Amino acid sequence: MTTPGIGQEVKGVIPGGPVGTTVTPVVVAVPKELAPGEQRVATVPEVVQKLTKSGHEVRIEHDAGTGAYYPDNLFTAAGAKIISSRTELLEGARIVLRVQPPTVAEVDQLAEGTIIIGFMNATNNLEAIARMRDRKITAFALELVPRITRAQSMDALSSQATAAGYTAVILGANNCPKFFPMLTTAAGTIRPATVLILGAGVAGLMAIATAKRLGAIVDAYDVRRAAGEQVRSLGAKFLELEINAEGQGGYARELTPEEKVKEQQMVSAAVARADVVITTAAIPGRRAPLLVTKETVATMRPGAVIVDLAAESGGNCEMTQSGKTIHEHGVTIIGPQNLPARVPFHSSQMYAKNLQSFLALLVDKDGALVKGFTDEILVASLLVHAGEVRHGPTRELLSGGKP
Ligand SMILES: NC(=O)c1ccc[n+]([C@@H]2O[C@H](COP(=O)([O-])OP(=O)(O)OC[C@H]3O[C@@H](n4cnc5c(N)ncnc54)[C@H](O)[C@@H]3O)[C@@H](O)[C@H]2O)c1
User: Fold this and answer.
1) Which of 337, 358, 384 delimits the end of a domain?
2) What number does the ligand 1 atom closest to the CA of 200 have?
3) Cβ of 281 less than 6 Å from ligand 1
4) Is 1 part of any domain?
5) Atom of ligand 1 minimally distant from the CA of 260
6) Which of 11, 81, 116, 189 could disulfide-pair with 96, CB 3.0 to 4.6 Å?
7) If you ran DSSP here, which 8-state letter would residue 192 be given?
8) Which residues, in sequence order, are CB contacts of 394 under 8 Å at separation 6+?
9) Is-contact 343 69, C-beta < 8 A?
10) Does pLDDT of 4 surpass 50?
């Protein structure tokens, strides 16, 4: 299997472009996601149409969009080629777009020099990263895209956190024995449900907005005081501690042991009052902070629900089991995995737009691949290139902690 070098590609004509305009068509391949429960797809017909109009050849693996309700025929109508064999799909492909990181076996299917873009989750995929390094694959990790204004349209962490925050509230409402809104009916007045959101980052803010739209009374808490204004602007009450743990780059820092005690006292009182608690607290590169202890769960009302969005990184609730729903003291504790995959149509649409914006950095105005990866967004997100792991922390993990 061979992939042409940048200088060796065949020249073609931009469909619909000015007469005589030639471009270097870039072959973009989109495999079907094979990870269990993954329903999303890395591109959607609307984006395919834009890519093919710009002169790229887009190949979609048969059934790649079916799980997200984008059937093959919509991709064909948008100008893509549907290909059943993975080998044929990847033959000559210059760029591969994915949602989930590739497995080692999937890396082995790629030709040297292929550019692969998607979430790479390096800490949990060191073997595949090492294989990409050894096979001279170029990998861009979307989770490493810097959170700067210019990169907002490529911020897949944010788009997928938006999907997760929305879905968490729907899941909470679905498991709650109460209505969310206040109702005045002939059969009496129903008091609105109280929803508590812990962590008011991207997912938390979306959860607040969704719970408000459903008519609940919403309280929220975050260790970053700056989040207070955003919480209040959504019509929710911000629970304030005297701690402000704003760390680097707008993220939270880890609390000191004394701060953690104060936080848990305040959080426990708010959790005990809530009908639904959505937890979204995270600190980059660390285990999720523990906010709800098992003693606090024991003080909750019967029928209360916890949806722990941090389940996959250790959980914000001590009792959470990742991927499971458990019942303790009449409380339902849900530890969902991959919530964006539960709204695959729109999470794929947002993700595909993120990738479209990212691709615009990799392709120049003539439709050819850029010669070097000098843009600061490309530099920051370049995980593996030319036989080297470019991301320092991942390189250290691979060398067993040695720099
Ligand atoms: N392009 C941009 O400018 C851009 C894009 C997205 C996000 N951001 C900012 O980045 C920051 C992080 O967003 P995120 O959603 O990715 O964060 P995240 O997923 O890392 O964390 C979620 C939230 O948990 C909070 N948290 C951490 N420890 C906590 C604790 N002990 N108790 C309560 N809350 C705790 C964090 O402050 C954060 O708001 C935010 O300030 C957000 O506004 C900026």
Assistant:
1) 337
2) 39
3) yes
4) no
5) 31
6) 116
7) P
8) 122, 123, 126, 129, 383
9) no
10) no
Q: What is the mean pLDDT of residues 306-325?
A: 97
Which residues form the catalytic set? 147, 152, 155, 158, 251
Q: Which domain covers residue 327, as residue numbers? A: 163-337
Q: What is the pLDDT of residues 67-90, one digit of tens each?
A: 999 999 999 999 999 999 999 999
Q: Dump pLDDT digits (tens) for 109-144.
A: 999 999 999 999 998 999 999 999 999 999 999 999
Q: What's the predicted TM-score (pTM) here? A: 0.92
- For a mutational test of ligand 1's pocket, the pick from 143, 144, 223, 263, i.e. the residue with the most ligand atoms closer than 8 A to its C-beta, is 223
Give the whole-angstrom CA distance, residue 43 versus residue 352: 4
Question: Are 99 and 37 part of one and the same domain?
Answer: yes
Q: Domain with 381 in it: what CATH number?
A: 3.40.50.720
Q: Is 235 in the pocket of ligand 1 (CB under 6 A)?
A: no
Give CA–CA dist 360/367, Å, rounded. Answer: 9
Asked if residue 16 has pLDDT above 50, the reply is no
Q: What angle in degrees, to the nearest 10, is found between the helix axes of 344-362 and 156-175?
A: 170
